[in-house]
Specification:
By secondary structure, the chain is mainly α. The chain contains 4 helices and no strands. The longest helix is centred in the first third of the chain and has 31 residues, at 2-32.
Length: 109
């Protein structure tokens, strides 16, 4: 029974992130006047749910409280997978002490 509750808990964070991603996609579509596409909405929802799960795991590893974890998961979902991965990459590289190579600074290389 306990594992069922844990799965439900994780799924709820993924759904929360997915809703955030879908809402921000629809907001952008509405602001620009473009039409909606169900396939793209599905992709945004799934990718936001995926990044929400990654955020959940990172928050739990950092022992953050439930409220902050929920907020960060929702924000990650709303930002979308690409943006959140870019942010997490910067944080991870700093944490691991890896110096990032920026091709924009040395375009001739």
């Amino acid at each position: 029974m306990n594992s069922y509750i844990e799965v439900l808990d994780k799924v709820s964070y993924a759904i929360f992130a997915s809703v955030g991603g879908i809402l921000f996609y629809l907001l952008g579509v509405t602001e620009t006047g473009r039409g909606t596409n169900f396939r793209i909405i599905l992709i945004y929802g799934l990718s936001s749910g995926f990044i929400g799960q990654i955020t959940l795991l990172l928050c739990r590893a950092a022992n953050l409280n439930v409220d902050l974890t929920g907020a960060l998961t929702g924000i990650a979902g709303a930002l979308g997978a690409r943006t959140t991965i870019s942010i997490l990459e910067i944080i991870l590289f700093k944490y691991l002490g890896i110096k990032r190579y920026d091709r924009r600074k040395n375009p001739e290389e």
